[in-house]
Structure to design on (336 residues):
């Protein structure tokens, strides 16, 4: 069974590639390398001892996508490719709408033409906007607070419309909470370009000495220590959910949406302090103003995924911090 992995050179996609190969799937990876390097592909091959084709193709180029579907018989697509920086999406919204929406539409059009109708899509907990309460389940109202989030929301709706038009589509929409951590080998991990937007890569760059201190965005939220609370999930647990989703859509038609989170919220200070004690690294921090657009508390109700997919996150915050540091300390400059 050959699976096309779009965005497979990226952070989550490369971990998914390892898991798929180790589980006996054949894969083909497509990535335009706009936010990744071929070295991640080399590392996936090294880790698994398996070879697979990699194409530096852009989903905006339909001719290239067509050529792949003519060359391979895909069983399903796992679609990670997309731009994901919230702040940048506010600055250059058209780039985000064009890349994320047009890329997905191109992909689905080519899939339909070749009668490949199984898709696993990377959505995000950002589609819950500012939720009234926690834990968040899949039936909560949806909204977006920035163009990036709106692309996820729009793609979800496009996929639902697609299924109304042709119920033989089998689509799993996976709403990720906050993926962190790295492969336990320390050979692949998150490799942000420039100043990290997200908390965990920022912490690990402080630990390695690339940045002076973490700015903690606000300590006046209604949480136990006043800092924001999130559902941090180990990337390896997250990608295992994709394999379960593949099995699910093999058996079931229609569109189904699943939260992928642990169900437990930890604060910004919990993460800093755990990282510090697990890895014996000093993490200086300073409390600063809230970051505009941030919400106080966000964590999943992951019961639906447990019930229908038979999936549950297993790794704790200690492993997330340990594996992040293994990756960061062994690769101080990422894949460069
Ligand atoms: P990433 O940037 O590391 O990986 C995405 C990959 O897609 C990159 O390698 C990039 O080069 C590629 N890409 C982008 N546009 C492309 C295009 N037009 N054609 C071909 N390749 C293209 O990001 P990630 O963290 O691995 O995220 C993967 C997916 O999960 C994204 O869709 C993201 O929005 C979603 N997601 C991520 C998070 C998170 O916190 N990391 C949370 C929720 C959802
Ligand atoms: C987590 C907490 C910050 C950085 C974002 C996207 C979301 C999803 C995941 C893709 C918050 C605080 C952060 C820092 C800090 N991505 N923080 N100092 O905002 O929950 O979600 O990534 O879909 O769409 O919005 O993640 O890691 O940026 O922040 O204090 O330098 O850490 O305020 O409370 P977030 P994050």
């Amino acid at each position: 069974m050959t699976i096309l992995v779009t965005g497979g050179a990226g952070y989550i996609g490369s971990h998914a590639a390892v898991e798929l190969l180790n589980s006996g799937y054949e894969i083909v990876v497509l990535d335009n390398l706009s936010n990744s390097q071929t070295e991640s592909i080399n590392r996936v091959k090294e880790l698994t001892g398996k070879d697979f084709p990699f194409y530096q193709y852009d989903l905006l180029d339909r001719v290239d996508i067509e050529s792949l579907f003519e060359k391979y018989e895909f069983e399903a697509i796992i679609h990670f490719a997309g731009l994901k920086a919230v702040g940048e999406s506010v600055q250059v919204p058209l780039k985000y709408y064009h890349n994320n929406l047009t890329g997905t539409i191109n992909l689905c059009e080519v899939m339909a033409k070749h009668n490949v109708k199984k898709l696993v899509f990377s959505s995000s907990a950002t589609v819950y906007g500012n939720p009234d309460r926690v834990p968040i389940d899949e039936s909560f109202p949806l909204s977006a607070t920035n163009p990036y989030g709106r692309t996820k929301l729009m793609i979800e709706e496009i996929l639902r419309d697609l299924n109304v038009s042709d119920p033989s589509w089998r689509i799993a929409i996976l709403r990720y909470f906050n993926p962190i951590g790295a492969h336990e080998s320390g050979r692949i991990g998150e490799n942000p370009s420039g100043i990290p937007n997200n908390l965990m890569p920022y912490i690990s760059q402080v630990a390695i000495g690339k940045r002076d201190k973490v700015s903690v965005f606000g300590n006046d939220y209604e949480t136990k220590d006043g800092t924001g609370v999130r559902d941090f999930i180990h990337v390896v647990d997250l990608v295992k959910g994709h394999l379960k989703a593949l099995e699910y859509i093999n058996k079931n038609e229609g569109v189904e949406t699943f939260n992928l989170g642990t169900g437990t919220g930890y604060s910004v200070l919990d993460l800093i302090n755990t990282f510090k004690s697990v890895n014996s690294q000093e993490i200086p921090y300073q409390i600063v103003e809230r970051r505009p657009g941030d919400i106080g508390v966000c964590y999943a109700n992951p019961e639906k995924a447990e019930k229908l997919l038979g999936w549950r996150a297993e790794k704790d915050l200690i492993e997330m911090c340990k594996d992040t540091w293994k990756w960061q300390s062994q690769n101080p400059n990422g894949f460069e």
In short: The chain has a mean pLDDT of 98. The chain has eleven helices and 14 strands. Residues 7, 9-13, 31-36, 58-60, 80-84, 99, 103, 122, 124, 176, 179 surround nicotinamide-adenine-dinucleotide (ligand 1) (CB under 6 Å). The first strand starts at residue 2 and ends at 6.
